[in-house]
Amino acid sequence: MNLEAFYELIKSGNINNAEIAWQIARGMRDSGDKDFEQFCRAVYSFSFGDFPAVKPAEFLTGLIDGQLRRNIFRKIVIPDYYVSFAPLVKSIKISNLHTKEFPMGFEVFTEVEHFYFSTMTLNTLGNELKGLPKIKHLEIDCWLHMDSLIILPEFEECCGIEKITLKGKIQLPDNLKSLNRFKNFNANS
User: Fold this and answer.
1) Does the pLDDT of residue 184 top 70, yes or no?
2) Alpha-carbon distance 64 to 107, whole Å?
3) What integer pLDDT is reported at residue 177 of this predicted model?
4) Of 7, 35, 79, 152, which residue is 20 to 30 A from 28 by alpha carbon distance?
5) Long-range contact set of residues 31-36: C-beta below 8 Å, sequence gap at least 24
6) Measured at the alpha carbon of residue 98, what is the angle toward residues 115 and 169, in degrees to the nearest 5?
7) How far is CA 58 from the centre of its chain?
8) Cα(77)–Cα(32) distance, integer angstroms
9) Are 111 and 134 in contact (CB under 8 A)?
10) Residue 18: its H or E element
11) pTM of this prediction?
């Protein structure tokens, strides 16, 4: 089975297909297929890497609608082998980004159009999202943030974003001219 047909099986919307897909992925991995080896490694890493852990088939079920929902407590780098399931991800929702630095490597998710994260610990956000060419909507929630999240001037390099929603304690640079180009900018503090 090739990866495109495999992705279609997961995107079919049938929850039972997630379990079948996981069985196929492990079988293809065991037969020596490098693409599926990378896919299984990525699913295991994302399933068990952070709290709460989920079974791999449950993780794949969550990708049926194109949404990657996770908490990130320890990751400061998104491994490049996550590219193996990236074509399935259209939206990323990180309910709790618990790092002081924004994790590098999200550019493997080239199809993401919507990116949401909530944080209490992130210090700054610069150009870490510039590698997501299709991102149209960015939501940042810092309601429980102890200090202000500082948006750095380098954020201007994130060119494709059309809509930004900011909630909580967020400090914007005075010279961030790019905010004027957004069709829909909303900031609540």
Assistant:
1) no
2) 21
3) 52
4) 79
5) 35/3, 35/84, 36/3, 36/6
6) 70
7) 17
8) 27
9) yes
10) helix 15-30
11) 0.87
